[in-house]
Amino acid sequence: MNLHIDDHQEGDVTVLKLSGEIDAYTAPQLKEKLLALVEENPTVHVDLARVSYMDSTGLGVFISALKTSKEKEHALKLINLQENVYRLFNITGLNDVIDIENTVRGELS
Amino acid sequence: MNEEFEFLEMKLPAKSEFVGVLRLTVSGIANRMGFSYEEIEDLKVAISEAITNAVDHAYYEEDSGEVTVGFGMYEDRLEVMVADRGGSFDLQKVKEQIGPYHDGVPVENMREGGFGLFLIDALMDKVEINSNHGVIVLMTKFLYENEVGQSDDQISTPQ
Question: Which of A29, A56, A85 is the best residue to mutate to test the B interface, defined by the most B CB atoms within 10 Å of its own CB?
Answer without folding.
Answer: A56
